Amino acid sequence: MTPSTEIRTGKVEFDKMVPLVRSFLEQDAMDVVIDGKTIRGYRSPDARSIWIRDYSDIMRGIRYFEPDVKSAVEHFAETQAANGRIFDYFTTFPEKLPCERENWTKYVRVPVEADVEYRFVKAAYLAWQATGDDAWIQRLLPAMERALNYAMTHPWRRDERTGLVKRAYTIDTWDFAYTAGKHDWLQFQVDDDTFWGIMHGDNSGYYEAFRIMSDLCLRFNEMEKARAWSERAKAIHQAMNAACWNGAFYTHFVKLTPVSIPGVDEAAQLSLSNPMDINRGVASHEQAVSIIKEYLRRGRHSDAFAEWFSIDPPFPEGVFGDPRLRGGTYCNGGIMPLVGGELARAAFSHGFEAYGIDILERYYRLIEEKGETYLWYQPDGTPASPDTSTSPDATPTDGWGSSAMLYALVEGLAGVEDLLKRF
Question: What is the pLDDT of residues 239-291, one digit of tens each?
Fold first, then answer.
């Protein structure tokens, strides 16, 4: 039977959103053949490649209609390093035309990123939920465990003093780091000049991943492992809230290496992982309410067409090494449906139902006229373009943000949430 999802409310913005988002996602489907095996994934809006970061979130939308949710996850597991490290992405297509024309098979890990391993675990879990295949997820459990152990032990990933996951000074979960001018472009590498710190979104992601591992181990009667993963989840939850919560929202970057970036109030920066922290379960109800109110407050005082900031306030132009990263563009203050979808999902769970509906209605109005959706928009509503970001593409079928809105619609507004597998 072909998977099918339909919502009927009598309101056009909700009834048409499922087929419209599905049409975006179907255009993002990407088949690659590696070692004679066809692997089906969904491309990033930024490039013709399958990123575990985008894909693990996009799965929250495609699982309602896509029959193959396993092969991409399996390939990330099959290419895992011996120490547990997971690749960020793979592709068989040239990414940066016209400079790159080679159609070789390419695998990339961006060293400054610390979120990859928990996203692999989440992707595997979502695939298991969609298929209900116990034998499949049991075979994957050792790879999932190795991935999380890497994040908890590697000196580039774990801060021994706090017990939290650390990263280089990037913009939230993005993949290039601040260098104070010591590198001549975007810095993707870890080196002796790296500014280290704690980014809340990494740690809420690992909290959720530890809980996933505990639940799966419990299901398969591995009681000792289930308890151990549960204890790890409790520990990172406590440490993250102690280190990152500032009384109103989660501080963007808690510095381990002293550094100050002139031209921005870093302590005031509200970054895109805050709504995700809520949906991953690391924020209490009171904290969730505070975060949502902060978005509402900033929306009232902003000239932007929506309050779905990647980060607010943004960093000064060019401080990350590329002059195109002006305030209000891309991950430096661009307006992201990804953030709006996560925020709407959180709103439905914490007493702001009218706000969740408002976000979904605004998103529908944004996309319905032209049938286009972008990863980010400038504050005046101008959509992304390759010449205004550091990425080779800016597709009008962004699956990352549109699937987040679908996630909010199905789980938040409709209230249909898979608490185990196959509903």
Answer: 999 999 999 999 999 999 999 999 999 999 999 999 999 999 999 999 999 99
Q: Which amino acid is at 254?
A: V
| Residue 234 lies inside a defined structural domain of this protein | yes
Average pLDDT of every residue of the chain: 96
Q: Is the pLDDT of residue 418 over 60?
A: yes
Whether pTM > 0.90 for this model: the answer is yes
Rounded to the nearest 5°, which phi and psi values hold at 42? -130, 130
Is residue 69 within 8 Å of residue 131, measured between CB atoms? yes
For residue 34, the enclosing domain spans 12-413
Number of domains the chain is built from: 1
Residue 6 lies in a domain: no
| DSSP structural state of residue 373 | B
Q: 347-360 pLDDT, tens per residue?
A: 999 999 999 999 99
Q: Would you call 5 exposed, middle or buried from its count of C-beta atoms within 10 A (0-12, 13-18, 19+)?
A: middle
Going from the C-alpha of 175 to that of each of 15, 106, 167, 356, the distances in angstroms are 36, 18, 10, 29
Output the CA torsion 418→293→251→166 (10° steps).
Answer: 10
Dihedrals φ, ψ of 229, to 5°? Answer: -65, -35
d(Cα 247, Cα 290) in Å, to the nearest integer? 8
The CA distance from 280 to 406, in Å, is: 17
Question: Both ends of the chain: CA-CA distance in Å?
Answer: 16
